[in-house]
Structures are given as C-alpha cells and as structure tokens.
C-alpha cells in the first residue's frame, strides 16, 4: 500500500531529515513509527500525504508513484488518507460535527449524506453526544477523538497519525490505541508515529524505528 | 466487525468530465453552499461587514446619483430641444398674406419641421396677456407688432455646422427683419451635458477602482484571519478552487450588498428632493417629476457592483491565498 524506495529528504536549513529510506507497508497493515524527536517520523508521514516532496527516491501509494502526481491532483490523493495530528488541528469557530464534516464537504458530498456519515464517525469515537459542542470546550482526549473522527469520516484506506497521544495521559492514550485497532480490524492501513516506545512494545504490531533519518530497526511484517 | 474494503470519497475524478445531471446538481449545491457559507460568515460579523458594505455603497452612490441628475437634466433638455424654435420677425410693412407666402417657402427647407404663423392680432393678444402692459397698448392707435413665423427645426439641423448657415440664409431674406433663436442655448446645454457625462464616466471609473481596493483589502484580511482554516482544508483534500470559491463569493456579496445600499441611498435622495424639484419646476410653469433610477440602471448597478466585488477578491486571492505551495 505504501512503498518507499531509497527516499532522501533534505531541508535547506536542517539538512537531511531522511536518508536512503526504503520500506513497504502492506494493505491493511498497522505499524508504529518510533524514534526520538527529529528522527524523521513527521517528515516520513508528510511525504506520504504529499505535504512535502522527497528530494530523491520514489514513493508509491496504492501502486502509484507520487512523483508523477501533478500538483492539481494532490487534493484527490489526500482524500484517500486520513491524517491525525498531535495538536488536533481543529477549527475552533466551528462545532464538532462541522469539523468532522470537513473532508466530506470539500469533496462535494451531498448534505444529507454528510450528516449521516458524520454521526457514524462520531459514534465510532464515542462523541455522538457532543456533536454540537465547540472543540475548545472539550478535553484534550475528546479533541483528539474529534480529530480521529475527521480522519476516518471519509473512510480512507490509509490513516497516518503523528504523535496522536503526545499530550494525553496513559488511560486516554489506551482509548485512542483501542480505536486504531478497531480501524485496523476493518482493513485500514495505519501508520502511527510515536515516541512512546514502551507502549508500542507491549502491542503486537510491526515497529519501524528511525534514527537520524535512517530506518535502523524493523520488527517485520505481521 | 467484518473486514471490508474502505472506499474513499471522490478520491479520483471521473475520467470524462461529462456533466451528468447528478454531477451538475452536486456542483450547483457546492456553489450554493459556498455562497451561503460566505454570506453567513459576513452576517456573523455585522459591524465589520457593514463598514465594508457602507464604504462600497458610498463609492457607488456618488456616480449613481450623478447619473440620476444627468438623466433628469437630459429629460429637461429634451423638452427644451423640442421647443427649440427660431422666431422670425418679419418686416413691419408685411401683412399676413405675404407672411403666409414666405411661410410656404420656408416650410420647404429640409431643416424645418413645422412653421407656424402668428398674425399681428395674435401677437398682440399674447403680448397683452403675458406682459401686463395691456393698458399701455390701448393707448396705441395701431398694432406695433410684426407678423412672426415660428420655426420648429429638425434635431439634425441643430448641429452648429448646419444651423449657422441656415440661419444666415433666413436672416438675409428681404422680408425678414430679425431672428431670435432659442435653439442655440439648447444646443449649448447639450454640449454641457455631454461634457458632464464624460466627467461622470471618469469619476465612476475612479470610484470603481476604489471599490476594487476596498473589497480586495477586506478579502486580504479575511484570508490572513483564516490561514489555519485554509491550511486544514487543504490537508483534508480541498482543491484550490474550493478554497478560492468562498472568497470569491464573499467579494461578490460585498459588492452586491454595497450596490443594494447605494441604490437605497440614491432612491432616498430622489425621494427627498422630489418635492423641491417639483416646486422649482412649478415656478417655470413646467410640470416636472424627478425620475429615479430606471430598471436598466438598477440592473447595471447590481451587476457591476457584484462584478467589481468578484474582481477585487480575485486579485486578493491571487496575491495572498498562496495555495498548495509551502504546506
């Protein structure tokens, strides 16, 4: 589903964030991406979502090389990827359900269908009761779950999460990871970046470890 | 839970852009949503919106009001033009029969629309009625007034190049004592109107540019305030045209609402001045009703203001949206 072939990413100021990185993630696979801050986890995720372009190498998503994708096609590529961020990236001047609806609205889905799907997504993350709330009024864990609902509402085949539990206490983190496992069960490909080494080693999933832009450990396919 | 394939929403565009009915209605709905969303956003900040709309309205109201003034002057001018006549005073010793013969000759000139003969007796009666010198006239033994021919000219003959030689020919006739022409100042009036119209057009151009800047600047600020939103929209797969569309609709709304307010202002102004204009006209024994904006003028105002709004926001969006570059 996701394939990196000798990918380099160099930033003008910071130097090389990724060095000769190759990896492959099968469809429906769930994997953790670990490493210290600055190891290149976020950069790797950004390359998949075409938020950044690689300096060298090739990235394939669903069999298609991203290098061949013209700029105007980028939005359509992103609609197939649900992205979850450490800081949620919610819009505070909109309600919870309006936030969750965004990917559907920008894709031009009919209003009635949007409402149905938004409620289904909020139900999945256990926030249906809060659909009219403003994100700012929610706890950090709830905000993150709104972010997750937004990422899955369009039912993308791929979900990328960048430190989704970075600001959460262990109990709330467990809830979030339980959600990810449920998406995994229904066949979504998940790649989750985290520095919570201890937790991921307790969970039986593939672990990709980055160090200074290189893939230094890969626990293999599961 | 069962294992199933997830289908992304609208991940790929259909290969052929054939506008099936469903796609068309989805497209229309998207536009409707964007338009309403923009309007709703503006109404949520009523004061800021009102300021922009008022600035646009005042800039539009000025040339619109001048157009109203010019239209009314033109109506007046038209009246004058119709009455633009040349009075030909015949020599004292000519009687009505000779005057009638001259009238036949003059009526054959192409410049002349109609010729009316005012006999000495009619002239005297008219003079008695309007001058207030009836008593003095009674003292006179004989009618001192000559026969007068009143010429109505074709509008084409009012061009100075035609008029001057024509008048010279008439004046040179031996039967004619002197001429008095009303046409000339109607003609000057037309020239002044033409100049004013050109001035209003230039002013409208300048103020239209002002509207463009006001709306462009408002949209620029809006873009700055909504950077996060634009960024997040882009992350969840919004196309550039989707992001752009809302701002273009905002611009259109600012323009249209400004145009609407300008129309209200001008209508109010006409209403306030109508009585004054009527009583002024009354002093000149004229019936004159101040005309407001015609339907075509209003349509032009609304369409023009909306277009200015779209253009202004288009410029701002092009310069400041910075789409899909450094995301």
TrEMBL record, chain A:
<dbReference type="GO" id="GO:0051301">
    <property type="term" value="P:cell division"/>
</dbReference>
<dbReference type="InterPro" id="IPR027417">
    <property type="entry name" value="P-loop_NTPase"/>
</dbReference>
<keyword id="KW-0067">ATP-binding</keyword>
<dbReference type="GO" id="GO:0022857">
    <property type="term" value="F:transmembrane transporter activity"/>
</dbReference>
<keyword id="KW-0132">Cell division</keyword>
<dbReference type="Pfam" id="PF00005">
    <property type="entry name" value="ABC_tran"/>
</dbReference>
<dbReference type="InterPro" id="IPR003593">
    <property type="entry name" value="AAA+_ATPase"/>
</dbReference>
<keyword id="KW-0472">Membrane</keyword>
<dbReference type="GO" id="GO:0005524">
    <property type="term" value="F:ATP binding"/>
</dbReference>
<protein>
    <recommendedName>
        <fullName>Cell division ATP-binding protein FtsE</fullName>
    </recommendedName>
</protein>
<keyword id="KW-0547">Nucleotide-binding</keyword>
<dbReference type="InterPro" id="IPR015854">
    <property type="entry name" value="ABC_transpr_LolD-like"/>
</dbReference>
<comment type="function">
    <text>Part of the ABC transporter FtsEX involved in cellular division. Important for assembly or stability of the septal ring.</text>
</comment>
<comment type="similarity">
    <text>Belongs to the ABC transporter superfamily.</text>
</comment>
<dbReference type="InterPro" id="IPR003439">
    <property type="entry name" value="ABC_transporter-like_ATP-bd"/>
</dbReference>
<dbReference type="GO" id="GO:0016887">
    <property type="term" value="F:ATP hydrolysis activity"/>
</dbReference>
<comment type="subunit">
    <text>Homodimer. Forms a membrane-associated complex with FtsX.</text>
</comment>
<keyword id="KW-1003">Cell membrane</keyword>
<feature type="domain" description="ABC transporter">
    <location>
        <begin position="2"/>
        <end position="222"/>
    </location>
</feature>
<dbReference type="GO" id="GO:0005886">
    <property type="term" value="C:plasma membrane"/>
</dbReference>
<dbReference type="InterPro" id="IPR005286">
    <property type="entry name" value="Cell_div_FtsE"/>
</dbReference>
<keyword id="KW-0131">Cell cycle</keyword>
From TrEMBL, chain B:
<dbReference type="InterPro" id="IPR004513">
    <property type="entry name" value="FtsX"/>
</dbReference>
<feature type="domain" description="ABC3 transporter permease C-terminal">
    <location>
        <begin position="202"/>
        <end position="319"/>
    </location>
</feature>
<feature type="transmembrane region" description="Helical">
    <location>
        <begin position="47"/>
        <end position="70"/>
    </location>
</feature>
<keyword id="KW-0132">Cell division</keyword>
<protein>
    <recommendedName>
        <fullName>Cell division protein FtsX</fullName>
    </recommendedName>
</protein>
<keyword id="KW-0472">Membrane</keyword>
<dbReference type="GO" id="GO:0032153">
    <property type="term" value="C:cell division site"/>
</dbReference>
<dbReference type="GO" id="GO:0051301">
    <property type="term" value="P:cell division"/>
</dbReference>
<dbReference type="InterPro" id="IPR003838">
    <property type="entry name" value="ABC3_permease_C"/>
</dbReference>
<dbReference type="InterPro" id="IPR040690">
    <property type="entry name" value="FtsX_ECD"/>
</dbReference>
<dbReference type="Pfam" id="PF02687">
    <property type="entry name" value="FtsX"/>
</dbReference>
<dbReference type="GO" id="GO:0005886">
    <property type="term" value="C:plasma membrane"/>
</dbReference>
<keyword id="KW-0131">Cell cycle</keyword>
<comment type="similarity">
    <text>Belongs to the ABC-4 integral membrane protein family. FtsX subfamily.</text>
</comment>
<keyword id="KW-0812">Transmembrane</keyword>
<feature type="transmembrane region" description="Helical">
    <location>
        <begin position="195"/>
        <end position="216"/>
    </location>
</feature>
<comment type="subunit">
    <text>Forms a membrane-associated complex with FtsE.</text>
</comment>
<keyword id="KW-1133">Transmembrane helix</keyword>
<keyword id="KW-0997">Cell inner membrane</keyword>
<dbReference type="Pfam" id="PF18075">
    <property type="entry name" value="FtsX_ECD"/>
</dbReference>
<comment type="function">
    <text>Part of the ABC transporter FtsEX involved in cellular division.</text>
</comment>
<feature type="transmembrane region" description="Helical">
    <location>
        <begin position="252"/>
        <end position="274"/>
    </location>
</feature>
């Amino acid at each position: 589903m996701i394939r990196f072939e000798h990918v380099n990413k160099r930033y003008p100021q910071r130097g090389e964030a990724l060095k000769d990185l190759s990896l492959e993630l099968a469809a429906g696979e769930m994997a953790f991406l670990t490493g210290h801050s600055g190891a290149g986890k976020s950069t790797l995720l950004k390359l998949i979502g075409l938020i950044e372009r690689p300096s060298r190498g090739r990235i394939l998503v669903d069999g298609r090389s991203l290098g061949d994708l013209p700029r105007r096609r980028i939005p359509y590529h992103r609609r197939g990827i649900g992205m979850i961020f450490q800081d949620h990236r919610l819009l505070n001047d909109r309600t919870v359900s309006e936030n969750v609806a965004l990917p559907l609205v920008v894709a031009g889905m009919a209003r009635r269908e949007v409402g149905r799907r938004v409620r289904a997504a909020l139900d999945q993350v256990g926030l249906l009761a809060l659909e009219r709330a403003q994100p700012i009024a929610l706890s950090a864990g709830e905000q993150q779950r709104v972010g997750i609902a937004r990422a899955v509402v369009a039912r993308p085949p791929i979900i990328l999460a960048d430190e989704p539990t970075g600001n959460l206490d262990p109990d709330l983190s467990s809830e979030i990871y339980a959600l990810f496992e449920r998406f995994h069960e229904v066949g979504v490909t998940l790649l989750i970046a985290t520095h919570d080494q201890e937790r991921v080693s307790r969970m039986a999933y593939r672990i990709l470890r980055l160090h200074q832009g290189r893939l230094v450990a890969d626990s293999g396919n599961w | 839970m069962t294992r199933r394939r997830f289908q992304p929403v609208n991940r790929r565009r259909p290969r052929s852009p054939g506008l099936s009915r469903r796609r068309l209605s989805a497209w229309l709905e998207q536009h409707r949503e964007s338009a309403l969303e923009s309007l709703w956003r503006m109404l949520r900040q009523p004061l800021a919106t009102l300021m922009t709309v008022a600035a646009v309205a005042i800039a539009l109201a000025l040339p619109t009001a001048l157009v109203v003034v010019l239209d009314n002057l033109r109506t007046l001018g038209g009246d004058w033009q119709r009455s633009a006549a040349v009075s030909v005073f015949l020599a004292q010793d000519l009687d009505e029969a000779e005057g009638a013969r001259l009238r036949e000759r003059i009526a054959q000139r192409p410049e002349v629309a109609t010729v009316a003969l005012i006999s000495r007796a009619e002239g005297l009666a008219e003079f008695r009625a309007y001058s207030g010198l009836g008593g003095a006239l009674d003292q006179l033994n004989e009618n001192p007034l000559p026969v007068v021919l009143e010429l109505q000219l074709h509008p084409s003959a009012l061009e100075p190049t035609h008029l001057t030689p024509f008048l010279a020919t008439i004046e040179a006739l031996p039967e004619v004592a002197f001429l008095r022409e009303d046409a000339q100042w109607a003609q000057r009036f037309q020239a002044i109107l033409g100049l004013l119209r050109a001035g209003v057009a230039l002013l409208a151009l300048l103020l239209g540019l002002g509207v463009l800047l006001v709306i462009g600047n408002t949209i620029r600020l809006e873009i700055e305030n909504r950077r996060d939103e634009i960024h997040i929209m882009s992350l969840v797969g919004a196309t550039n045209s989707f992001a752009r569309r809302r701002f273009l609709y905002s611009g259109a709304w600012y323009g249209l609402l400004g145009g609407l307010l300008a129309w209200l202002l001008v209508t109010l102004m006409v209403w306030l001045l109508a009585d004054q204009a009527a009583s002024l006209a009354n002093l000149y024994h004229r019936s004159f009703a101040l005309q407001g904006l015609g339907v075509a003028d209003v349509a032009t105002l609304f369409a023009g203001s909306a277009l200015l709004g779209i253009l202004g926001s288009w410029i701002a969006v092009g310069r400041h949206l910075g789409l899909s570059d450094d995301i």
